Amino acid sequence: MKWDDLAQEPCSVARSLAVIGDRWTLMILRDIFLGVRRFEAFQARLGISRSIVTERLNLLVAEGVLERRPYQDRPVRHEYRLTDKGLDLHPVIMAIVDWGDRYYAGEAGPPILRRHKGCGCDFHAVQVCSECGEPVTARDVEARQGPGVAPEAKPVA
Amino acid sequence: MKWDDLAQEPCSVARSLAVIGDRWTLMILRDIFLGVRRFEAFQARLGISRSIVTERLNLLVAEGVLERRPYQDRPVRHEYRLTDKGLDLHPVIMAIVDWGDRYYAGEAGPPILRRHKGCGCDFHAVQVCSECGEPVTARDVEARQGPGVAPEAKPVA
DNA sequence: CGATCTCCGTTCAAAATCCGAACTTACGTT
DNA sequence: AACGTAAGTTCGGATTTTGAACGGAGATCG
User: Fold this and answer.
1) Do the Cβ atoms of A97 and B126 come within 8 Å?
2) Positions 6-35 in B, CB within 7 angstroms of strand C
3) Residue B114: which of A124, A143, A157 has the nearest Cβ?
4) Which nucleotides in chain D have some atom under 7 angstroms from a protein Cβ?
5) Domain boundaries of chain B, sorted by first residue
6) What pTM did the predictor assign?
7) CATH of B3-140, one of 1.10.10.10, 3.10.105.10, 3.40.50.1980, 1.20.1740.10
8) How many CB atoms lie within 10 A of CB A157?
9) pLDDT (tens digit, 9 = 90+) per residue, A124-142?
10) B95, B94, B97, B19: which is closest to B57 by C-alpha?
């Protein structure tokens, strides 16, 4: 399998990763959720090749995760903003943050704190079941084939 | 910045991605959470180079995400199992699944259904605030520098 | 007016990474 | 003896990624 084949897989993980499954793409998304919007800022903060920044931003725009919009004329300058589809990636970033905070934060604590505006507390994200509201762990989940897979498709496990 | 520098960044996203931030690594983790445990199975399901499978599994073992343990003698054969640290990656995979289900599932629906053993319902994961239990979206979060960053470190935004 | 600066890219050769295919080891099976 | 299985390793060529330079459209400086 090649990278480009991922989007065709009958698997939501594969199809998502075809868009965001790349280190720099995810780093760009991290920055975007922190408020970074401009090409130069991404390039400077990440310290990576400009062509990679270009390519990743273009892909995210093409996939509807980001929107490229002018923020001034003469000369025209654009900034990249999250669409609703992009905002829905927040749980992905938060899940990654939580894991990193738990296993890779030093003695001092996490590098970034996040406050929930709703209740005013510093928090971390917890995943709960959409139906009963109870926390969900790996062992609480039973996966089975869903309707989106053709019968002749290769089995998932 | 190079890939290897990610682990040194004062950022939980970067440090996590240094371990799991790779398409194939995340695909391997997807399979593991579906119950796949053996080298041959990963290689066959993903259809990627055996050397990549080797390298990724070794990294995950070195980082304590997976455990390599013999499941038979003569000849010795090993399988890869999630450690507790690895099980804690479940929210990451689930967040990716949810996004893919929402934006890339076809008419028919998602390719895989997941049932919550606790309540018996098919569900999707919802992220809530650890403090107040209310759902959290990107707009509800205010990030600021935490204790794990040295004062002289470069600012996060 | 000419020089330099900013922002947002593009181009290109060199370096790093990835891939497929074959090979290896160590057993079991027919 | 020949074949099959599980779990890798090796290696040359294909693909990606990178750094560094270049472009261009306007703004600002002197």
Assistant:
1) no
2) 22, 24
3) A143
4) 5-11, 16-21, 24-27
5) 3-140
6) 0.93
7) 1.10.10.10
8) 13
9) 999 999 999 999 999 999 9
10) B19
